[in-house]
Amino acid sequence: MSGPAPRSSRTLRAAGAALLLGATALAGPAAPASAAPAPDPAATAGAPAAPDGPAPDANSPAALLRRLQALYRSAEESTEAYNATQEDLRATQARAQTLGVRLKQARARLAGARADAGRLARQQYQGGGPATLAQYVRVLLADDPEQAMDRSHLLHTAAAEAAATVDRLARGARQADTLARQADAALDRQRALTAQRARQRTAVQSRLKEVEKLLAGLSEDQLATLDRLENDGAATAQRALVSRGALGAAGAPSSAGDRAISYGLRQVGKPYVWGATGPDAFDCSGLTSQAWSHAGRAIPRTSQEQWKRLPHVPLNRLRPGDLVVYFPGATHVALYLGDGKVVQAPRPGTAVRVSPLAANPPLGAVRPDPGDRPVTGYTAPRQITAHGPASGAADAGYARSAAPGH
To answer: Could you say which of 90, 277, 307, 365 would form a disulfide bridge with 330 (CB–CB 3.0 to 4.6 Å)?
Structure first.
């Protein structure tokens, strides 16, 4: 899938400057650009605090930031829904293909059984087939009992063969009919998923257009203010996590976790593209699933499935290689590096980067390798320890030239 056409250089710079919106603090569908949504108290880590007193102006920097956060939150929810449908579609296509092969084989066996049954029917009609009445009479009237017994055995064998042919015909017909129904159902589901994926693609693109429209009307001063508010909010949230002991010691990853970290760090600087799983671009769960795949451990594709199916661990027991999942709907995910840092693909318009863990409000964490022991003598890569965990440089060095889209 290709992205939207390039925009003017100013709009691209505007997108890059304001796409540093990791503290996506609002739940629910995207809010229209003309109305500032109310913040979700459960998901406000990293977002600028609302001052006491009268409600802020709808065009204030804080209100603009909340609006952009809501739009990106909605876009990411739509992205992960698209990813889940894409995975379902792939599985359904594979099942339909398998059922098609099995149905072809079943129909070939059924044709063979029908041919055998037809041959038996012709033999019976012509009087020369097994187990006819005349043959039974000849056995009963035979002068030689031993010869009669031999003939009787042959007749029973032939009758059993005929019965087996009829049974094989019936079973083959039932199997072919069942497989045909299953194949039809798989194709129907494939068509429904294809239509659903198209609707979800439209939803993502619509959310991103709303963001672009809002960004296009902002001045450079407004964009700089949004940057400062976001960085300050992320730094404050990170310090709060550290001060209350919510983040444990860095520790060491397993050997597989070390490989996942190395892979994730090698992707730093590559663009976010929704639905992408590399090697040239990633979305959030595309990065984490590929990191662990390259570490030799297959994990679910989407952030929701990673949260649902992988073992949970508390944040104060994190070890490098764990996955940190964000927001109440588990719509964002990052790879924990240690020292309070994650590597993540933040959102359209940005690139894969190392960030403070609290750049988004965490829901919890999961561990893809719960049974593996930490490696001994582990030395953290330089990218992890370059800044302290409470650094205010939340996502410094973000790409200002990347356009949102897919």
So the answer is: 307
Contact present, 20 and 394 (Cβ < 8 Å): yes
Q: Which is nearest to 380 in space by CA: 273, 204, 261?
A: 261
Please, which residues have CB within 8 angstroms of residue 14's CB and are 6 or more apart in sequence? 215, 216, 218, 220, 223
Strand order in the sheet with 323-326: 312-313, 362-366, 323-326, 332-338, 341-344, 353-356
337-347 in b/e form (b: 16+ CB < 10 A) is: bbbbbbbbbbb
d(CA 176, CA 375): 53
pLDDT score of 100: 85
Measured CA angle at 76 (ends 233, 325), to 5 deg? 65
Looking at residue 370, what is its pLDDT?
A: 94
Q: What is the CA radius of gyration of the chain?
A: 32
Residues 62-86: pLDDT tens digits? 777 777 777 777 777 788 888 888 8
Tokens, residue 239: 């310090």
The whole-model pTM stands at 0.62
Q: Residues 6 or more apart from 25 whose CB is under 8 A from it? A: 39, 40, 43, 44, 45, 46, 47, 66, 69, 70, 73, 361
* Residue 51 clears pLDDT 70, i.e. is over it: no
Q: Are strands 341-344 and 353-356 parallel, antiparallel or unpaired?
A: antiparallel
In residues, how long is the chain? 406
Instruction: State percent of the chain over pLDDT 90.
Output: 28
Contact between 275 and 286 under an 8 Å Cβ cutoff? The reply is yes
What does the alpha-carbon distance between residue 331 and residue 363 come to, in Å, rounded to a whole number? 10
CB neighbour list of residue 13: distance below 8 Å, 6 or more residues apart? 223, 400, 401
- Separation of alpha carbons 214 and 14, rounded Å: 10
Contact 326, 366 (CB under 8 A): no
Would you give the DSSP letter of residue 300?
-
- Give me 303's structure tokens: 């952030």
Strand partners, 351: 271
